[in-house]
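Exercise 7 asks you to align residues with C-alpha cells for two separate proteins.
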Amino acid sequence: MPAASSIVRQLVEQAFNLGNLAVVDELVLLEAASHAPGWGLPANRLGLKQLVANLRAAFPDLHCTLADDIDRETRSAALWMLRGTHQGPFLGNMPTGRQVEVLGFVFAHIKNGRISEGWLLIDQISMLQQIGAVPPPSGNFAKDPIHRRP
C-alpha cells in the first residue's frame, strides 16, 4: 500500500497542478469529508473538485509544491506553497495579472490507500492582498507593546 504522503503528493500534482479532476475520484473515498474552511463549498469530494476547478480557473498556471511533510501509516500532514498568476475571476475579483505566492497546509487520513478525510487550508487573505483586493496590514507590530518581543 502506498505511503500516506505519496497519496497526498499525487493528489496535489495531478489535481491542483495538472487539473486532472478524475484523480480526485481515484484517491478520495466517495464518503470522505473534505474540509476547506472559508471557501463556502460542500465538505465532500465534490467540494474538493470545485475548489480545484475554481483555483485553476482563476490561476491557470497554478502550481503547488509540498514543502515539508510528516508521514504516518494512515496520516499525512504537509506544508505547501501555492503559486500562480491571477488570470480569471477569483472570489468576485476580476483578473489583475498579478502573481501570488501563499502558504497553506493539508492534513489527510488514509484508509485502504485512499483519503478518507482531509483538511486543506490556503491563506486567502494573503492571496487577496497580493491581487490588490484587500489592503495589506497597516501599522508597525514591532512598536506595538502587545506584540513586541522581549
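Second protein for Exercise 7:
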Amino acid sequence: MAIPIYQVDAFTERPFRGNPAGVCLLSGPRDVEWMQNVAMEMNLSETAFPVPRPDGAYDLRWFTPAAEVDLCGHATLATVHVLSERGALAPGVRARFHTRSGLLTADLNGKWIELDFPASPPEPIEAPDGLLDALGATATYLGKTRFDYLVELPSEAAVCGTSPDFPALKRLGVRGVMITARADEAGLDFVSRFFAPGVGVDEDPVTGSAHCALAPYWATRLGKEELTGYQASSRGGTVRVRLEGERVRLVGQAVTVLRGEILA
C-alpha cells in the first residue's frame, strides 16, 4: 500500500526558504528501522511520522537521517500544515501530538501556525573543552539546555561569519550548539544559527526547538515576552516567539513543495 509523503518548507511563506521537513502520513505504527530508513532516504534535517489515535490526536516521532530526536519544531509545523491541507485538521480545532517530549499542541490562525512547546531555558556553564575552539569564536555567554549548548556571540556579524569545525562539535556529545546575538535589523530581536553534527545535521536551516531556549534567554535579556528571531542559515527563516511561563509559543508559516508516495 502506498504511503503519502510530503516535503514542506517550514518557517517561511516562500518555497526554497526556511527549513525543509519530510512528513510521512502513517495509518498505523511502523518499526523504528523502517522510519529511520525513510528519514535517511529523504535526507532532510528531520522527517516527521504522525500516526492518528482514536481520540483525534496523533502520535508523532521525528528522525534525522542518522537518529531519532526528542523534539523538533519545524517538522511539527510542517505536519500541521500537511494535515490542514488534506482536510484532516479543521479550522479552529487544536492539533494534539503525543511525543517523547510530552503533549504538544498547535493552532491554526489563517496562514500562521502556532506551536505550544516546553520552554528549555539555558543554565550558565563554564566552557566545555573544545567548544569555543570548534566555533572559532569568543563568547559573551555560555549556557546549556537539556539538549544543546547556547553560545551568545558579541555581534550579528560574528554569528553570520562563524565557520565551525563540525567533527570537533560532534565530539562534544550533545544534540547541538546554537550561537546567537542581538539583531541589527529593525523588527528583529535576535539572530541565531544551529549546528547539530551529533545527530547528522551539520547546520540546520531553521530550528524550532532551539527557539525553546532562545525565547526565554532573550526574553530575560531584553525584558520582553514577545520576540522575533531570524535564523541566519543559507536558506534563512523567521520565527516569532512568545514566552508563557514554562511554555513557548512558536509561530510560523509553511509551504508544500513536493508530494509523493512511499512504495517500500
